[in-house]
Amino acid sequence: MNDRKLKDRVRDKIREEWGKLRLLSWKARFAYVWDYYKPVMVGIIAVIAVINIGITIYHNLQIDTLLYVYLINCNTYYVDSETLTADFTEYLGETEGIELAQNEEIDIDTSMILDDDDYSTSYTYQMKLAAVISARQCDVMLMDVEKFEEYAGMSYFMDLRELLTDEQLEEWADRIVYLEDEEGETIPCAIDLTDSPIVEENMIYYDTVYGGVVGNSENLEMCITFFEWLLSE
Question: Global pTM?
Fold first, then answer.
C-alpha cells in the first residue's frame, strides 16, 4: 500500500513538472531544469569526474607515461592531441634518439577548460586538475595569461632557475616571465610561448600563452625537451 502511494506521488510530481515545462520554450525549459536540478547535476558531474580519474589512474598503472602535458583553455576545435603527440614523439626520435617502448607514451590533454563563466564545469575540471597534480600525473601546463597568473599565485609552478641550465636561461631570457607566488616572492616560473612555431602552426592558442612545469614533476628532463620542441624552428 505504501509503495502504491509512493508511486502515485512520484507520478503526480512528474505530471506537475511536465505541465510546467510544456508552457516554456526549449531554451526556457533547459534553464528551468538546470536551476531546479543544479545540485543533482553537479553531483552527477562530480561522480563522472571521479570515475574518469579512477580509470585514468588504472590506465597509468599499465602504461609508463614519460610526460604529462595539459593544454588548458586551448582552441579545442582545432587542436588534435594525437597529431601533437605524434610530432613530439618524432622529435624525440630525431633529436634525442629516444624511441618509445610499447608500454611507454606521451600524454597531451587538450580537454580541460577553466571557465569562470561556467562555474559547474570549471569546478569539475579544477577538481580533476588538483587530483592529477596530487597524483604526479601533470608535468607541464600551458595556459592563457590570466589563469597562469592565478595558479602561479598558488605556487603551482617550479622556479625555472632550478630546472634550466645557465645556457638555457640566457637563450630564453626574453621569454622567461617572473610572477609572484603565494609568499609574495617574484620568481621565473613561466615561458612565453605565444609565438612558438608549434603553437602557431597548430593554432593551439590565439592569445598570449605561458607554459610552466608543475612543482612536483618527476619528468624534468622530458619537460625541458618539450619546451625545446615547442620553440624549435
Answer: 0.73
